[in-house]
Amino acid sequence: MSVGEMLAATVPMVRTLNLEFLETGPEKVVVALPDQGEFHNHVGGPHAGAMFTLAESASGAVVLAAFGDQLSRAVPLAVNAEIAYRKLAMGAVTATATLGRPAHEVIAELDAGQRPEFPVTIEIRRADGAVTGEMTVVWTLRPNG
User: Fold this and answer.
1) Fewer CB under 10 Å: which end of the chain, C or N?
2) How many domains does the chain have?
3) Cα-Cα end-to-end distance for the chain
């Protein structure tokens, strides 16, 4: 099962928004939010909440891609998120999430009995390439038990 399929199966909002996972790797993920009228705002573009969910879902996908082999001993959880809306988004948008620390450093902290935290940065772009939003999500791997 791919990372996108796993998220679609376990996170209902991914299915609700019809998110499309275009690229899923352990350092970078690209997810698309199709242009859908039922998720528009008052000016006809994607609603801020839909863009937040798009970006947060992209961040979760990169976490799953990077740390999926650690799920037997730790649960990934979002600690906090901050988003900035930069330009008007119209039509379909994509979110590119990038892991903010090397995975081996995070795993080393987990191995040392710590609860590591690490940032994921996300850029939201419209079809013409303009950055319409930027988000940072801080994640943790909470050890089981």
Assistant:
1) C
2) 1
3) 27
- What pLDDT was estimated at residue 1? 83
Q: H/E element holding 48? A: helix 48-67
CATH number at residue 9: 3.10.129.10
Residues 108, 102: contact at Cβ < 8 Å?
Answer: no
Q: Dump pLDDT digits (tens) for 11-43.
A: 999 999 999 999 999 999 999 999 999 999 999
- Amino acid identity of residue 32, one-letter, is A
Phi then psi for residue 51, to 5 deg, are -70, -35
Q: Measuring CA to CA, how many Å separate 133 from each of 57, 63, 89?
A: 14, 20, 8
**144 secondary structure, DSSP code:** P
Burial of 62 (0-12, 13-18, 19+ CB in 10 A): buried
Residue 24 belongs to domain spanning: 3-143
C-alpha pair distances (Å), 7 with each of 63, 67, 126: 11, 14, 23
Q: How far apart are CA 125 and CA 93, in angstroms?
A: 5
